[in-house]
Structures are given as structure tokens and as C-alpha cells.
Amino acid sequence: MKILMLSVTFPYPPTQGGTQVRTFNLLNYLRHDHDVTLVTLRSPDASEAEITALRDSVSELVLFDRPPAPAAGLWHKAARLGQFVITGRPSGVWASYSPEMQVWVDTAVARGHYDVLTCEHSVNEVYVRPEYAQHLRTIVNIHSSVYGTCVQQLQTGTAEKPGRDRFNLPLLKRYEQGFCRKFQDIVVTTEDDRQQFQAFAPDRTLTVIPNGVDFSTFPARSQDPGGQNLVFIGAMDNLANIDAATFLVQEILPAVRQEYPQTKLAIVGARPVPAVQALAAIPGVTVTGAVPAMVDYLHRATVCVIPMRTGLGIKNKTLEAMAAAVPVVASDRGLEGLAVDEPLRALRANNVAEYKVAIARLFASLSLRVEISHSARRYIEGEFTWEQAGHRYTEVICGRNAS
Q: Percent of the chain at pLDDT above 70?
């Protein structure tokens, strides 16, 4: 089967964030039995070696230059808002829209070169015209809901600009309801997202395909390091991660240090914004930036804390920490899509007091850390592999999926 895969996010190396990881690992599975053409935008920091590696992973790689960054200034922001109201698409979608890429996709679909078109994340829907469904199968792989995330940020008080987001909320709902109708199949990562998008598109087939883990990149650690060392991982230019890291340093860490004053914290991830970099001024807090191997920091940590207060969808950071056999303390958001309570595979916390108690329990008990770590690793090995995700995605692509 010939598959046309659209991803405005350059999905290599597959260690830079959730969208890259999911897109690359799915295409890496599909390429073994199908011809995959990937159409993507050039990442400004992608090296020629990385472009070559990605090209070697697909039948054909089609690269376009990324559009210039949106202009700053009040007038330009107002113009983008007006565009959102008129076109029904958020400014973030237009920010990654390439007219040259659109022409290429239109031409390829018109010539009947492909059997299936997949959009890797909903932002790529802008390139798909409703009439494409007359020529080939169309699938949108929604990594997370923009509308749902906006609702969540407003409810939790973590919205960067609450006034703007309240205005945008009905527009975002209209946007997601609208684009769903263009696609024959919709793929999501969690049951929560399935329920939301089923309400948006009740006549469409929806399939839940969770993320997976590359176990060669995230092997289980051989021994518990002891100590009182915390770690938080993720792309540090992501709004949900910025909020989580700030919450961890400013509120959770001081509470933990009341009982364990020597507690240290490593914030590990690429592209830390100034607000995250500033957290390193707190004694005992390290902000690493990009690192060669995330798993090394996981293996050295006593506990991985994932205090997400916003952000929908299954979290790669949680899967990776559990795969590395590091005990996890996380919020409901950080554990979305995972069954961790019975048997115990992670500790759940949603406020400062709960985080303090859960982290203290793990600091105090080697046996509890070992129990949770081993149980978590077995769980990830059994249910969250990229082979399983790729097989289910193949079923959707071939029209054999079940909702």
C-alpha cells in the first residue's frame, strides 16, 4: 500500500518531544510492509545527517522550508485573531502552512499516486481538502485535543492568557468539530480523547492507539540508586511542561524538603525557556537543557515526578520513566490513559500535600520503589510497544480497525 504521511513537525531525531516520537515510530513500523512518502517541513536545527537518517527511514522524503515566524506586534496579533474568526483555523495552524507544500499535496492526490493519506497531528488537517476522500482513504492521527487542552488550562488556572483563551474556546470547539468531518477515520491516544471526538463526529470511526516506548533507548535500570533525587523530563519549551516544572520547583520541592532537606531535582529536556532556566537559581535544582541520553538521568533518580496540570493525551515521559524502571509520582493528567492503581505501578498525586506524602513514601521504602518499578516495567512491556501501536495503525490504514 502507498501511504502519504503529512507532518509539519520534522520527526527526527525521535527524542525531541511527543509529536516527533509518535510520528517517527509509527512510520518506522509502517515502512516495513508499505511504501511511505513523508511530506514535512525542514526543522531549523536539523542537521544534514539527521535529514539523511530520516530519508533512509521512508520510501520518499519530501521537504519544504518552514514558513517565517509570525510577525510580532499588536496589529499582527489582531490580524491573526481576525483570520481565526474568518477562516475557522487557529493562528498556530496557519503558522506552519506552506503554500508550496499544499500545491505538492494537491498534485499528488489528483494524480492518484497514493492509497491512504494520514495527518500526523491535527495541525496538518489544513492541507487536506474534503474532496480528497473521493480519491483515497483519509486519516487524522490526533495526538491531543487543542480545545480540550484550552478547557483544561482555564479550569486549572494555568492558561498563559486567560482572556484570550476564553474568547478562543468556542472557536476551537468549532474548529475541531469541523475538521473531523473531512476524515474517514480518526485516531486518538486515550479513551478520554475518544469520547470527546466521538461527540464531535458521532458518525466517524474512532480508534484509540496509545504511544509506545523504544526499549533499546529506555532500558530498565539494573539497581536502585537510593538517595533523595528527583527528576522531571520533557521538552522545556512546551507550555504544559513549563507549568509542571515551575509547580514542582516552587511548591512541591519546598514541601518535600521540610522532611528531606537534602532533596535534589534535575529538570531534563531540550530548549528550556528563560522561565525554566531561572529555576536553576534554586539551590539543588539543575536545568540541563538537551542531553545525549535522557535515560541516564532517569536511572540516577530516586523518583520521577510528573506534576502535569494541563495537557491531554498519553504522556511519553510517563511511559519512558516507567519503562526505565524508575518509580513515578504523577498527577491524573500525567497518568492519563494508564492503569496504575491496582496493581500498583505508580503513585498518584494532584496537590502539594499528596505529592509530599507520595515522594516521602518512596524515599523511605526501598521495597516499595522496587515493587512499583518492576510492576511498571512489566506493564509497559506488555501493553505499550511501538510494535503494538504500529500494528493497530496498520489495521486502521487498511480499513480493518474496530472502534
A: 98
